[in-house]
Task: structure prediction
Amino acid sequence: MELAELARHWDAFGRSDPLWAILTAPGTRGNRWDPAAFFQTGQREITELLRTLDELGLPPPRGAALDFGCGVGRLSQALAGHFERVVGVDIAASMIDRARAANRYGTRVRYVQNERDDLACLPDSEFGLIYSNIVLQHMEPRFARAYIGEFLRVLSPAGVICFQLPERRAASPVSASRSAPPTAKTATPSGHAERDENAIGDDWQPRMEMWGTPPQEVQRWIHARGGLLVSRLQDSGAGPDWIGHRYVVTHAAHPRHAQISTATPSTTR
Ligand SMILES: C[S@@+](CC[C@H](N)C(=O)[O-])C[C@H]1O[C@@H](n2cnc3c(N)ncnc32)[C@H](O)[C@@H]1O
Result:
Protein backbone atom coordinates (compact mmCIF):
# COMPACT_ATOMS: atom_id res chain seq x y z
CA MET A 1 0.00 0.00 0.00
CA GLU A 2 1.39 3.42 -0.97
CA LEU A 3 1.48 6.11 1.73
CA ALA A 4 -1.49 8.07 0.35
CA GLU A 5 -3.57 4.92 0.55
CA LEU A 6 -2.26 4.14 4.01
CA ALA A 7 -3.26 7.64 5.12
CA ARG A 8 -6.78 7.10 3.78
CA HIS A 9 -7.19 3.88 5.77
CA TRP A 10 -5.81 5.31 9.02
CA ASP A 11 -7.80 8.47 8.60
CA ALA A 12 -10.97 6.36 8.40
CA PHE A 13 -9.96 4.48 11.55
CA GLY A 14 -9.32 7.82 13.24
CA ARG A 15 -12.80 9.05 12.35
CA SER A 16 -14.70 5.87 13.27
CA ASP A 17 -13.07 4.17 16.27
CA PRO A 18 -9.59 5.59 16.92
CA LEU A 19 -8.84 4.19 20.37
CA TRP A 20 -9.81 0.67 19.36
CA ALA A 21 -7.81 0.96 16.12
CA ILE A 22 -4.78 1.85 18.25
CA LEU A 23 -5.24 -0.71 21.02
CA THR A 24 -7.58 -3.53 20.04
CA ALA A 25 -8.28 -4.68 23.60
CA PRO A 26 -11.25 -7.01 24.12
CA GLY A 27 -14.50 -5.18 24.79
CA THR A 28 -13.28 -1.82 23.48
CA ARG A 29 -14.54 -1.95 19.90
CA GLY A 30 -17.24 0.56 18.99
CA ASN A 31 -15.78 3.53 20.90
CA ARG A 32 -16.01 1.65 24.19
CA TRP A 33 -12.51 2.51 25.47
CA ASP A 34 -12.60 4.61 28.63
CA PRO A 35 -10.31 7.49 27.52
CA ALA A 36 -8.71 7.80 30.99
CA ALA A 37 -7.85 4.10 31.03
CA PHE A 38 -6.57 4.33 27.46
CA PHE A 39 -4.18 7.20 28.26
CA GLN A 40 -3.11 5.40 31.48
CA THR A 41 -1.69 2.60 29.31
CA GLY A 42 0.58 5.20 27.74
CA GLN A 43 1.83 6.38 31.14
CA ARG A 44 2.73 2.82 32.13
CA GLU A 45 4.41 2.15 28.81
CA ILE A 46 6.63 5.23 28.97
CA THR A 47 7.58 4.60 32.60
CA GLU A 48 8.61 1.07 31.63
CA LEU A 49 10.50 2.32 28.55
CA LEU A 50 12.53 4.83 30.56
CA ARG A 51 13.29 2.16 33.17
CA THR A 52 14.57 -0.18 30.43
CA LEU A 53 16.76 2.53 28.93
CA ASP A 54 18.17 3.30 32.39
CA GLU A 55 18.97 -0.38 32.87
CA LEU A 56 20.80 -0.36 29.54
CA GLY A 57 22.84 2.63 30.73
CA LEU A 58 21.23 4.84 28.08
CA PRO A 59 19.08 7.44 29.83
CA PRO A 60 17.96 9.76 27.01
CA PRO A 61 18.61 13.51 27.19
CA ARG A 62 15.36 15.09 28.45
CA GLY A 63 15.05 17.91 25.89
CA ALA A 64 12.89 16.90 22.96
CA ALA A 65 11.15 13.56 22.31
CA LEU A 66 9.61 12.33 19.07
CA ASP A 67 6.61 9.97 19.06
CA PHE A 68 6.43 8.59 15.52
CA GLY A 69 2.96 7.33 14.55
CA CYS A 70 1.47 9.10 17.54
CA GLY A 71 -2.20 8.31 16.88
CA VAL A 72 -4.31 10.29 19.36
CA GLY A 73 -1.26 11.03 21.54
CA ARG A 74 -1.44 8.12 24.01
CA LEU A 75 2.38 8.08 24.25
CA SER A 76 3.09 11.74 23.42
CA GLN A 77 1.09 12.86 26.45
CA ALA A 78 2.98 10.44 28.68
CA LEU A 79 6.33 11.56 27.24
CA ALA A 80 5.44 15.17 28.11
CA GLY A 81 5.70 14.19 31.77
CA HIS A 82 9.41 13.46 31.26
CA PHE A 83 10.61 15.68 28.39
CA GLU A 84 10.62 19.45 27.88
CA ARG A 85 9.10 19.19 24.42
CA VAL A 86 7.35 16.44 22.48
CA VAL A 87 6.54 16.17 18.80
CA GLY A 88 3.98 13.61 17.67
CA VAL A 89 3.92 12.74 13.98
CA ASP A 90 1.13 10.80 12.30
CA ILE A 91 -0.01 10.11 8.77
CA ALA A 92 -3.74 10.48 9.55
CA ALA A 93 -5.33 13.92 9.83
CA SER A 94 -8.17 12.55 11.98
CA MET A 95 -5.70 11.08 14.49
CA ILE A 96 -3.82 14.39 14.66
CA ASP A 97 -7.08 16.30 15.20
CA ARG A 98 -7.97 14.03 18.12
CA ALA A 99 -4.46 14.23 19.54
CA ARG A 100 -4.64 18.03 19.52
CA ALA A 101 -8.04 17.96 21.21
CA ALA A 102 -6.68 15.70 23.98
CA ASN A 103 -3.43 17.66 24.54
CA ARG A 104 -2.96 18.69 28.18
CA TYR A 105 0.47 20.32 27.77
CA GLY A 106 -0.13 23.35 25.52
CA THR A 107 2.77 24.30 23.28
CA ARG A 108 5.12 21.78 24.91
CA VAL A 109 3.47 19.11 22.75
CA ARG A 110 3.16 19.67 19.02
CA TYR A 111 1.37 17.34 16.61
CA VAL A 112 2.32 17.18 12.94
CA GLN A 113 0.61 15.37 10.09
CA ASN A 114 3.08 13.86 7.62
CA GLU A 115 2.25 11.80 4.54
CA ARG A 116 5.76 11.80 3.12
CA ASP A 117 8.20 8.90 3.25
CA ASP A 118 10.68 11.15 5.06
CA LEU A 119 10.64 13.48 8.06
CA ALA A 120 11.64 16.63 6.21
CA CYS A 121 9.26 18.43 8.59
CA LEU A 122 11.82 17.89 11.39
CA PRO A 123 15.34 19.34 11.80
CA ASP A 124 18.60 17.37 12.09
CA SER A 125 19.93 16.25 15.50
CA GLU A 126 16.90 17.47 17.46
CA PHE A 127 15.59 14.60 19.57
CA GLY A 128 16.97 12.97 22.72
CA LEU A 129 14.42 10.17 22.47
CA ILE A 130 12.64 8.80 19.42
CA TYR A 131 9.97 6.25 20.18
CA SER A 132 7.69 4.35 17.82
CA ASN A 133 5.43 1.56 18.96
CA ILE A 134 2.97 -0.53 16.88
CA VAL A 135 3.48 1.72 13.85
CA LEU A 136 6.27 0.47 11.56
CA GLN A 137 4.58 -2.95 11.47
CA HIS A 138 1.69 -1.44 9.51
CA MET A 139 3.66 -0.33 6.44
CA GLU A 140 5.77 -1.92 3.74
CA PRO A 141 9.37 -2.46 4.87
CA ARG A 142 10.68 0.03 2.28
CA PHE A 143 8.88 2.76 4.23
CA ALA A 144 9.94 1.47 7.65
CA ARG A 145 13.51 1.49 6.39
CA ALA A 146 13.23 5.08 5.16
CA TYR A 147 11.78 6.28 8.48
CA ILE A 148 14.45 4.48 10.52
CA GLY A 149 17.05 6.29 8.41
CA GLU A 150 15.28 9.54 9.18
CA PHE A 151 15.18 8.70 12.90
CA LEU A 152 18.97 8.62 12.82
CA ARG A 153 19.10 11.98 11.05
CA VAL A 154 16.87 13.76 13.58
CA LEU A 155 18.44 12.04 16.62
CA SER A 156 20.70 14.18 18.83
CA PRO A 157 24.31 12.95 19.28
CA ALA A 158 23.58 11.40 22.71
CA GLY A 159 20.01 10.44 21.88
CA VAL A 160 18.31 7.04 21.87
CA ILE A 161 15.86 5.47 19.44
CA CYS A 162 13.49 2.70 20.44
CA PHE A 163 11.11 1.16 17.92
CA GLN A 164 9.04 -1.99 17.72
CA LEU A 165 8.90 -4.22 14.65
CA PRO A 166 7.69 -7.80 14.28
CA GLU A 167 9.79 -10.41 12.53
CA ARG A 168 7.18 -12.88 11.29
CA ARG A 169 4.07 -14.77 12.21
CA ALA A 170 4.96 -17.41 14.76
CA ALA A 171 3.59 -20.21 12.58
CA SER A 172 5.07 -19.15 9.22
CA PRO A 173 8.86 -18.86 9.08
CA VAL A 174 10.22 -16.77 6.20
CA SER A 175 13.57 -16.54 4.52
CA ALA A 176 16.05 -14.68 6.67
CA SER A 177 17.08 -12.53 3.75
CA ARG A 178 13.72 -11.14 2.68
CA SER A 179 11.01 -9.16 4.34
CA ALA A 180 7.82 -11.05 4.94
CA PRO A 181 4.95 -10.24 2.60
CA PRO A 182 1.91 -8.54 4.09
CA THR A 183 -0.13 -10.97 6.08
CA ALA A 184 -2.80 -10.22 8.60
CA LYS A 185 -5.14 -7.67 7.20
CA THR A 186 -6.86 -7.31 10.47
CA ALA A 187 -10.54 -6.96 11.16
CA THR A 188 -12.25 -3.77 10.24
CA PRO A 189 -13.88 -1.60 12.94
CA SER A 190 -17.26 -3.03 12.05
CA GLY A 191 -15.93 -6.52 12.59
CA HIS A 192 -16.47 -7.60 8.98
CA ALA A 193 -14.03 -9.88 7.33
CA GLU A 194 -11.35 -8.33 5.19
CA ARG A 195 -12.84 -6.31 2.32
CA ASP A 196 -11.45 -5.33 -1.05
CA GLU A 197 -9.69 -2.03 -0.45
CA ASN A 198 -10.76 -0.87 -3.90
CA ALA A 199 -14.43 -1.44 -3.28
CA ILE A 200 -16.42 1.72 -3.70
CA GLY A 201 -19.30 3.34 -1.88
CA ASP A 202 -20.51 1.97 1.42
CA ASP A 203 -18.62 -1.29 0.96
CA TRP A 204 -15.23 0.27 1.52
CA GLN A 205 -13.78 -0.56 4.93
CA PRO A 206 -10.44 0.58 6.32
CA ARG A 207 -7.88 -2.09 7.02
CA MET A 208 -4.46 -2.49 8.57
CA GLU A 209 -1.61 -4.27 6.85
CA MET A 210 0.83 -6.23 8.98
CA TRP A 211 4.42 -6.70 7.88
CA GLY A 212 7.33 -8.55 9.41
CA THR A 213 11.02 -7.98 8.79
CA PRO A 214 13.93 -10.24 9.80
CA PRO A 215 16.16 -8.65 12.46
CA GLN A 216 19.26 -9.13 10.31
CA GLU A 217 17.70 -6.88 7.71
CA VAL A 218 16.70 -4.27 10.27
CA GLN A 219 20.26 -4.30 11.58
CA ARG A 220 21.58 -3.67 8.06
CA TRP A 221 19.23 -0.68 7.69
CA ILE A 222 20.50 0.74 11.00
CA HIS A 223 24.18 0.30 10.19
CA ALA A 224 23.76 1.74 6.69
CA ARG A 225 22.67 5.01 8.28
CA GLY A 226 25.45 5.24 10.89
CA GLY A 227 23.44 3.71 13.72
CA LEU A 228 24.38 1.09 16.27
CA LEU A 229 21.95 -1.58 17.45
CA VAL A 230 22.56 -1.57 21.18
CA SER A 231 19.89 -4.04 22.15
CA ARG A 232 17.11 -6.12 20.68
CA LEU A 233 14.45 -7.10 23.16
CA GLN A 234 11.58 -9.52 22.76
CA ASP A 235 8.29 -7.75 22.14
CA SER A 236 4.70 -8.94 21.98
CA GLY A 237 3.18 -5.66 20.76
CA ALA A 238 2.04 -7.22 17.48
CA GLY A 239 -0.01 -9.79 19.38
CA PRO A 240 0.44 -13.41 20.40
CA ASP A 241 0.62 -14.68 16.80
CA TRP A 242 3.76 -12.73 16.04
CA ILE A 243 7.41 -12.97 16.93
CA GLY A 244 8.47 -9.40 17.50
CA HIS A 245 11.26 -7.20 18.72
CA ARG A 246 11.94 -3.85 20.25
CA TYR A 247 15.13 -2.28 18.89
CA VAL A 248 17.26 0.14 20.90
CA VAL A 249 19.54 2.19 18.66
CA THR A 250 22.00 5.05 19.03
CA HIS A 251 24.44 6.77 16.73
CA ALA A 252 27.56 4.60 16.37
CA ALA A 253 29.42 7.65 17.70
CA HIS A 254 27.21 7.96 20.83
CA PRO A 255 29.40 9.21 23.73
CA ARG A 256 28.80 6.01 25.72
CA HIS A 257 30.40 3.90 23.00
CA ALA A 258 33.61 5.90 23.21
CA GLN A 259 34.29 4.07 26.51
CA ILE A 260 33.22 0.60 25.42
CA SER A 261 33.62 -1.54 22.37
CA THR A 262 31.37 -0.59 19.46
CA ALA A 263 31.01 -4.32 18.88
CA THR A 264 28.51 -4.56 21.73
CA PRO A 265 26.40 -7.63 20.99
CA SER A 266 22.70 -7.18 20.69
CA THR A 267 20.68 -9.01 23.28
CA THR A 268 17.30 -10.60 23.42
CA ARG A 269 15.43 -11.10 26.62
C1 LIG B 1 -1.73 1.18 16.07
S1 LIG B 1 -1.63 2.92 15.99
C2 LIG B 1 -0.41 3.29 17.28
C3 LIG B 1 -0.49 4.71 17.80
C4 LIG B 1 0.53 5.05 18.88
N1 LIG B 1 1.87 4.70 18.50
C5 LIG B 1 0.18 4.33 20.17
O1 LIG B 1 0.81 3.30 20.46
O2 LIG B 1 -0.70 4.83 20.88
C6 LIG B 1 -0.67 3.20 14.52
C7 LIG B 1 -0.57 4.67 14.14
O3 LIG B 1 0.44 4.80 13.15
C8 LIG B 1 0.01 5.77 12.23
N2 LIG B 1 0.76 5.57 10.98
C9 LIG B 1 0.66 4.54 10.11
N3 LIG B 1 1.52 4.73 9.10
C10 LIG B 1 2.19 5.88 9.35
C11 LIG B 1 3.20 6.61 8.66
N4 LIG B 1 3.71 6.19 7.49
N5 LIG B 1 3.65 7.76 9.21
C12 LIG B 1 3.15 8.20 10.39
N6 LIG B 1 2.17 7.57 11.08
C13 LIG B 1 1.70 6.41 10.56
C14 LIG B 1 -1.49 5.53 12.12
O4 LIG B 1 -2.18 6.63 11.58
C15 LIG B 1 -1.85 5.24 13.57
O5 LIG B 1 -2.20 6.42 14.24
